Amino acid sequence: MRSKLRSAGRRVAESKHAFEAGREIADLPRDEEGRARIVCRRHAERRAVPLDDRGRPVCYEADHPDCEGCVEDVREGRVLAGGSGTRLYPASRADRPKQLLSVGDDDRSLLARTLDRVAAADRRVVLTGPDHADRVRDHLADREDISPADVWVEPAPRDTGPALVYAAARARETFEDPVLCCLPSDHHVSGDFDAVLRRATAAAVETRGLVCVGVEPDRPATGYGYVRPSEAADGYAPVETFHEKPDADRARGLVEAGALWNAGVFAWTPDALLSAAADTPLGPLVRAVAGDSDGDGGEGEDGESDGLAAPEAAYGDLDPVSVDCAVLERADDVFVVPADGIEWDDLGTWDALARVLPADADGNVVDGDALTVDAENTVIAAEGAHVAVVGVEDLVVAAVDDRVLVVPRGETDRVREVVARLREKGRF
């Protein structure tokens, strides 16, 4: 099993050259059916390589006898759909998780948009928790491209750290060490996101390390985490430091220093993540899903892994922790790929509507049935109700069914305080 938990990629000193994202695929040798050959792990050396039309690396050595038809680097999309998005209350509630909502000018749910965004993956899997599993399955029931078997349910909600370790272990049951592209199900993204994932996939293949996607900031936001590359990230670059949700002064300094927003989008192989997580607070879960209590994992008589062991006990002992805090900030081989050419927002608060929807001449943004009179810079979201505002400014008004929220713009993070009190009363 130690071979399964091998070192997560080459050291930074061995991975200085950037991925050549612009290399033309059309110039590569192809077989009789026009397919480019795929990189094989039998190569003694991995190098920066171009991608085929599925986002997988293509072999430089087209005449290598072992590369014919060899498809070992398979891209899987892992979509995280476990949270509730509490700061979008009252639209998002315990029985109405944010990822199942349609936010903005697109009728599709955020989850549906995310799945469509990774349609080029060889397989797409939705990872959710027991509280949302039935709702997610019902929500996806009419899709022909996602089956109930593609909805995986982790034992308990413990944030992204345990969730992604669990997903990595399960992924090895399907393919031999695929490249996993892991992304949230509730973000706004426009532009060529698939090109970004292709670059991240290529970086994960070449480095055998952990790859995150960074977005160039357009403001010193305090609600996002930041990742600072150690050098200019033309293709990808080693990560120097992570910074989690800084204050305003620190955020301004990070933006000036060239730091990127951490979009919560990752690419890695299962082996790379499990190896990096083995010596972290997630170590007990890694050993549990590896099927061995001493950390070495288990192998059958044929030398193959015994498969995914039951992780419920290990989950019960874990505190919620993000993969960033548990693994990425501790690991050595961590890289960032800049998300060039896309527009991104995590839609974390009601203020985000003003960034993704057009405003009227007075700066008002309306999503739903609403009327404004002498109002300025107000965000209105209405579902199942008509909302009228008169003579107000710099407010958020969200009315969904029988619930109404009014909060000043710029203070929408405090909606979590409302949710905490509602939970205490059993009304969330």
What features would you describe in this structure?
With 428 residues, the chain is α/β, with parallel strands linked by helices. The chain has two domains: 75-345, Spore Coat Polysaccharide Biosynthesis Protein SpsA, Chain A, CATH 3.90.550.10; 351-424, no CATH class. The chain is 21% helix and 21% strand. The protein is built from eleven helices and 17 strands. Strands 6-9-7-8-10 form a five-stranded mixed β-barrel. It has a four-stranded mixed β-sheet with strand order 12-14-16-17, with no helix packed on it. Helix 3 (160-171) packs across helix 6 (270-277). The protein is globular, with a radius of gyration of 23 Å. The model is unreliable at 1-31, 33-51, 59-72 and 293-307 (pLDDT under 50).
